[in-house]
Design goal:
four-stranded mixed β-sheet, 28 helices, 16% strand, alpha/beta
Length: 819
């Protein structure tokens, strides 16, 4: 029954870096890749290289594991060898302005197109008005005006002469033309006309009516002549404007002959300028900051601009875009509106590119959680990836939230590789509940939580520390400080044989150590600075831990760390608070009495116990029955409780302690209160590994240290947890001095032997246990309970057995619903 405490060297594995000779991180080269992430790196390279549809990537792993930095590094290297994608421009569709055209031109030429057309408009604004001021143009206009004016005058003159021959005068009045009879060369007044003979009046009336019809015919022809004149003048304008525009456009067309879409747009622009030359002639330009209005008499010059939505002139290789706020407009683009005279108006110049536009032809990196919480962003992204085309949309129009007229821009072909970065839970939820996710994101790059702590692994981690120090502008770390960082990284991994792959908490530790090193005026970061950074961080987050320990020291919460008690044992509970986790002992008690074989979990009955804890209690009951009452029913009722706990209890790490409290109550065995117990049990009594072993040991140590170490206090842990030990230096020092102990056990009997000081006992050939062992005392008490139960239930059993004999009476079975 000899149980020796663990030696100090097994309580914390020290880093030595014997294979890497250096005195400070200044001597170590940078690390190109994160250590231990080869699988994730291979997956990223595969997904990036596969050109087929649907091979987008999801980089999954814990936050701070270097996912984003590794993705950035890999994509930057991959993008540098790819061609620069074309620029994306939106231009006016002259035939239908509500459907702007999308032009894609070689990278850098979008600026040239924008500048060419802007210069063209500026030139035409001065050239076209100058055309209309030329002498030859004015002469042609006067000639046309004179021609049509003469045509009208000639017709009226001929009518007047014909009318005069018939003694009828054609008079021009403010109200128009009038026909009147003539006498002696002058128009007759009504009185004179009335004095004429009736036959003469009839003759003149007939003549006037005839000439009235001829006048009406002439006047009816005048609007037609005016239209013809306007057409002649407009045709003249077109001829002169076409000459001016042609000279300006021919040079531009020559530069863009290799871009058919641009040539087609310039030709359409030519025709629109010719048709709307009056805007240039009259100067009816709208304000520069406002789009065209539907009620304007002439178009403004914005219609000839180029909206350079994506400019890749300064891009080297394929673009790599990281969108930190992946809203629907930020991803797919948006169409803005402006207020103009109380109305919201828009045009193609107000189309704004989204992240997909900028990443087209390259890579887009998004945070999965940020993407999913933005309304409609996830659906919009999937729609674009499925259709392989990109079209800016207005959410207000899509949701029918606004009745203003919007645009329907031409779609742009989409060729982009999307990389989502997120937690594993998000990946598996999307994979399970979104079938489209499986089709669109076929490559998962799973980042490791921890890496192996081999000699080679420690050497690589030392180079990582050196790389981080230089990246963040920190002081160099000496050899001992690097070892301290590696040890702390192992503690974060909760494993002496592993190192955490989360870079961010290690970088934070180094930044804080740099602060303390500078505070003391040191030129390098030393081990003491790393240790102080860890201690100060724990101190800053340790308010609740201190308050709970203070409650125990003041006696508010009853925890014994000396003496013995029956049916009472010290368990250990862990409390995670963000990045900080602490543990405190909790008092577990058990009581037993005669009963029907029921083990009552008070936590479960009060609805404070979780499912895993309830399962552990069932396993405990199964082990108790098999180990101590294999051939007889358990004629007892036991109750197990966590005393003075007022919140939920979850997990199975206290099942070994609960078993010990129950066995103590059964066998009336005093348990040493100077020891705390953690570990779960299986149905065979084996002690299984648990989490938070370092925090649990340190939590009980802090309490015992505050009360004064006696040399008897200690913690019993599963042997499977020994490789996970990375204890604080003060705990290791106390264990080395014999003032505190850590015991590793493999079976429930080992725990009871340590707590009771009694052996478990081995049965002899007849199955009898030696006297003085705790197992014998437990089985003896169970036997007494069984005898009492049979005594109390004997008549009932006989009556129920229907005379089946002594065998049935001696072995009454509990009801099926009971344990």
């Amino acid at each position: 029954m000899t149980h020796n405490p663990l030696p100090p060297e097994r309580l914390c594995r020290r880093a030595t870096l014997d294979t890497l000779p250096f005195s400070s991180t200044d001597e170590l080269p940078d690390l190109a890749e994160l250590p231990g992430q080869q699988r994730a790196l291979e997956a990223l390279r595969f997904g990036v290289a596969v050109p087929h549809e649907g091979y987008n990537l999801f980089a999954l792993g814990p936050a701070g594991s270097g996912r984003e930095s590794l993705v950035r590094q890999l994509l930057a290297a991959q993008a540098s060898g790819r061609p620069v994608p074309p620029d994306c421009c939106y231009v006016n569709h002259f035939a239908d302005p509500s459907r702007p055209r999308a032009l894609r031109v070689p990278a850098g030429r979008g600026r040239a197109l924008r500048d060419d057309l802007a210069a063209l408009v500026d030139e035409l604004r001065s050239a076209i008005p100058g055309i209309f001021e030329r002498e030859d143009f004015r002469a042609r206009v006067e000639e046309i005006n004179a021609e049509f004016a003469g045509r009208e005058q000639s017709a009226l003159s001929a009518l007047a002469e014909e009318a005069a021959a018939a003694e009828v005068a054609l008079l021009r009045t403010p109200n128009g033309f009038v026909l009147a009879p003539v006498k002696d060369g002058e128009a007759m007044n009504p009185d004179d006309f009335a004095k004429l003979p009736e036959s003469e009046r009839e003759r003149l009336g007939t003549s006037i009516n005839a000439f009235q019809e001829k006048l009406a015919h002439i006047l009816h022809q005048v609007p037609q002549w005016m239209r013809e004149r306007r057409e002649r003048l407009k045709s003249l304008e077109r001829h002169y404007v076409m000459t001016a525009v042609g000279q300006a456009l021919d040079e531009i067309l020559e530069r863009w002959r290799d871009q058919p879409a641009v040539v087609a747009h310039i030709e359409a622009l030519r025709q629109d300028v010719v048709e709307n030359a009056a805007a240039f002639r009259q100067g009816l330009e709208a304000p520069a900051e406002a789009p065209a209005l539907p009620f304007q008499a002439a178009p403004d010059f914005r219609r000839y601009q180029v909206n350079l939505a994506v400019d890749n002139a300064e891009t080297a290789g394929a673009p790599v875009v990281f969108e930190d706020l992946p809203t629907h407009p930020n991803l797919l683009g948006r169409i803005e509106h402006m207020e103009r005279f109380g109305a919201l108006v828009t045009d193609f110049t107000l189309i704004r590119a989204g992240a997909l536009h900028r990443a087209n032809g390259g890579y887009l990196v998004l945070d999965a959680q940020k993407l999913l919480v933005q309304p409609f962003a996830w659906e919009g992204l999937k729609r674009a990836l499925r259709a392989r085309e990109l079209r800016p949309e207005s959410l207000a129009r899509m949701l029918s939230l606004a009745s203003t007229k919007s645009l329907e821009p031409e779609a742009v072909p989409l060729d982009v590789k999307v990389v989502l970065i997120g937690e594993r839970l998000l990946y598996f939820l999307l994979y399970e509940y979104d079938p489209e996710f499986r089709e669109l994101f076929k490559v998962a790059a799973d980042f490791e939580d921890v890496v192996d702590r081999s000699a080679e692994g420690e050497a690589l981690y030392a180079r990582l520390v050196a790389t981080l120090a230089r990246r963040f502008g920190l002081l160099a770390l000496d050899r001992e400080a690097v070892c301290a960082v590696i040890e702390r990284a192992a503690r974060l991994a909760e494993d002496a044989e592993r190192i955490t792959a989360r870079v961010e908490p290690v970088a934070d530790l180094m930044r804080e150590a740099d602060h303390w090193a500078r505070q003391r005026g040191a030129g390098r970061i030393g081990a003491m600075d790393v240790q102080r950074a860890a201690q100060e961080r724990q101190r800053r987050a340790g308010r609740l831990a201190n308050r709970t320990r203070e409650a125990i020291l003041r006696g508010t919460v009853a925890i014994d760390t000396a003496g013995t008690e029956i049916g009472q044992v010290n368990g250990l509970a862990v409390y995670p608070l963000g990045e900080f986790t602490f543990a405190q002992p909790t008092r577990i008690t058990a009581t037993v009495r005669l009963g029907e074989g029921e083990i009552v979990d008070i936590e479960r009955e009060s609805k404070l116990g979780g499912n895993i804890h309830s399962k552990a209690m069932m396993i405990l009951g199964a082990y108790l029955s098999v180990r101590y009452a294999e051939e007889i029913p358990l004629a007892l009722q036991a109750r197990v409780a966590f005393e003075q706990t007022y919140g939920g209890v979850e997990g199975d790490s206290a099942s070994a302690a609960e078993l010990c409290a129950l066995l103590s109550a059964l066998g009336e065995l005093p348990l040493r209160q100077c020891l705390a117990v953690t570990g779960s049990i299986d149905q065979l009594g084996r002690i299984q590994a648990i989490g938070g072993v370092n925090e649990k040991i340190e939590g009980f140590f802090d309490l015992c240290n505050a009360r004064g170490l006696s040399g008897e206090q200690g913690v019993i842990i599963p042997a499977a947890n020994v490789p996970h030990l990375m204890l604080r230096e003060d705990v290791v020092a106390a264990c080395a001095g014999g003032r505190f102990q850590v015991y590793a056990v493999e079976h429930a009997d080992d725990v009871m032997e340590l707590l009771t000081g009694l052996p478990a006992g081995e049965p002899d050939e007849e199955g009898n246990l030696p006297e003085g062992c705790f197992a014998a005392r437990v089985m003896e008490r169970i036997g007494r309970f069984f005898a009492l139960r049979r005594e109390y239930a004997g008549p009932v059993v006989e009556a129920a057995s229907g005379g089946a004999g002594d065998e049935a009476a001696e072995a009454p079975q509990p009801p099926a619903a009971q344990l």
